[in-house]
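thread from #wetlab-drylab

HS: before we spend reagent money on co-crystallization trials with acetyl coenzyme *A, can we at least see a predicted complex? here's what I'd submit
DV: go for it
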Amino acid sequence: MDAKTGANIKIAKLTLGDKSWSFPIYDGTVGPSVMDVSKLYAETGIFTYDPGFTSTGSCESKITYIDGDAGVLLYRGYPIEDLAEHGDFLETCYLLLYGELPTAAQKENFDDRVTHHTMGHEQMMRFFQGFRRDAHPMAVMTGCVGALSAFYHDSTDITDPTQRMVASIRMIAKSPTLAAMAYKYSIGQPFVYPKNDLDYASNFLRMCFAVPCEEYKPNPVLARAMDRIFTLHADHEQNASTSTVRLAGSTGANPFACIAAGIACLWGPAHGGANEAALKMLGEIGSVDRIPEYVKRAKDPNDSFRLMGFGHRVYKHYDPRAKIMQKTCHEVLNELGVNDPLLDVALELERIALHDDYFIEKRLYPNVDFYSGITLRAMGFPTAMFTVLFAVARTVGWIAQWKEMIEDPHQKLGRPRQLYTGSPRREYQPISRRK
Ligand code: ACO
């Protein structure tokens, strides 16, 4: 952005009555330009009004780029398709954190550091015992990740770059361990400790599905699928949970607390909870012949029903992650020999919706969550775990964005304003005089 150099700055003019003001326009490397309104209130006495922040850029970032109209997602400039196809999740983590793809030596060192931080503090195990067994694992994740700041105090000084990086590695390494523990706790099985000779995804699957009484052999097709699902969900620029992490971080809160805030936000059905909701919906539809009934409901303005896994705030074209997810879904079902009738419902629903005027006009396409539920269910995860897996994957995005924010010299405490439409000042009435 030319915000710093001030070179070739374009100007937007705002005129109100007989006064006018100029505001600089900055160009990104690609994508829409932004108008810098940071001095708007100081100069004009008015605020911008943008519920849902649909026209607001909240920060400068070099991490992720989305072109929602073209269906493009780039991490540090690299297309998601290439990273998911040719790389692995830890390579993506390195890329998001450091800005460049690692050399072989850097990758080996990074993998080693993450692997050797996967164990949790032994006292964390006791922390779990305080939860009910039937607690939603997202509730458990939110609590346990928040609690990490109590266990790893030596990496909570956000002014120390070394501590920031240690906290980042710890978060990436420990979130699958905590997620697997949340799952094991919910089904009453013993926790499985991480195993350092396994790759990130295989290790996670083992921590979820191994039991002490049997030998566990990771399935490479499932591990690859898990790894790819993590890569697809690793970051997505300034979405609701990432913005939550940045906002929390802008106060100087420690990284573990910020990520816990992000996890709480991700839980909502309009965000990370959509894969759970999409699978539930496919189950409710049940068979291909009932699809028209549900499509009709989705189009009815008087019915609050929406096709879950369809539509996206940013993608007004096919979500590029959904295509990879669809392929991964087929690979997993083939490997496991699963013939899931919900996949037939999903494929037919997608086909019908893509040809329906309502969805075409509103530019509603399947998003990444549409196929992830079927895939994860086939892999053995209960629906309550879906959003937890999303949180494991997104941890790196949150932490990379948090780090970028802390290291940004223009960073400020996040504090939006409002259009107040409540009562103006009025006189307090003692209760005896109220009617
Ligand atoms: N089914 C039916 N109609 C829909 C859907 C849907 N899934 N999504 C949007 N619409 C309609 C809306 O009713 C609205 O119609 P209107 O113009 O007649 O009022 C129009 O399309 C625009 O919808 P908005 O909600 O205003 O669009 P927004 O960008 O705010 O919403 C959202 C995006 C929340 C994702 C929405 O598409 C949705 O609810 N989808 C289902 C939930 C889902 O799959 N979420 C996952 C998002 S991906 C992620 O978090 C990883």
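DV: The mean pLDDT is 93.
HS: ok that's useful, forwarding to the group
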